[in-house]
Amino acid sequence: MRLAVVSSDGENVDLHLGKGRSVYVYDYGDELSFVERRDVEISEDAKHQGGKVIKACSDCDVLIAVQYGFKSKIKAEDADIKLVMDEGPIDEVLERYINHVEFMRK
C-alpha cells in the first residue's frame, strides 16, 4: 500500500490538501518505508488546487491531509485514491491509519 501525507515540514501532517506544496510518500508492506518527497506547484491565492496534489499522487492508494474539499473528494474517487483527514506528527498519523487498516482486516 502506498500512502502520501501533505506536510509543510516533513514532520507533521499540517496542511489542507489544496495547500499541499509538498507531499511525502511512504510504502507499507511488512513495514513502513519512506519513498520520496514530491513538490507540487501550488499558487498561494488560487482556490481548489487539491486536484494538483491528487495528480501528483496518482500512484498512491491513500492521501492524508488535515482537510479537503468536496471537489477534491470527487477527483480522488475518480483517481481511485482514498482521502483521509488527520493531523499531527507524520509517524503518529501513519501509525493510526495502518493500525486501523490492520484492525479492519481482522
Structural class: alpha/beta
The average pLDDT score comes to: 95
Strands of the largest sheet, in order across it?
4-3-1-5-6
The radius of gyration is 13 Å
Number of domains: 1
Q: Order of SSEs, N→C? A: EEEEHEHEEH
Instruction: Please report which band the strand proportion falls in: under 5%, 5-15%, 15-25%, 25-35%, 35-45% or over 45%.
Output: 25-35%
The CATH class turns out to be Alpha Beta
Shape: globular
Distance between the termini: 17 Å
Level-2 CATH architecture = 2-Layer Sandwich
CATH topology: Nucleotidyltransferase, domain 5
What can you tell me about this protein's structure?
The protein has 106 residues and is an alpha/beta fold. It has a single domain, classed as Dinitrogenase iron-molybdenum cofactor biosynthesis domain (Nucleotidyltransferase, domain 5, 2-Layer Sandwich). 30% of the residues lie in helices and 30% in strands. The chain is built from 3 helices and 7 strands. It has helices at 50-56, 70-78, 90-105; strands at residues 2-6, 12-13, 22-28, 32-39, 62-65, 82-85, 88-89. The strands form 2 sheets. The chain has a 5-stranded mixed β-sheet, sandwiched between helices. The longest helix has 16 residues, at 90-105. It is globular, with a radius of gyration of 13 Å. The model has no long low-confidence stretch (mean pLDDT 95).
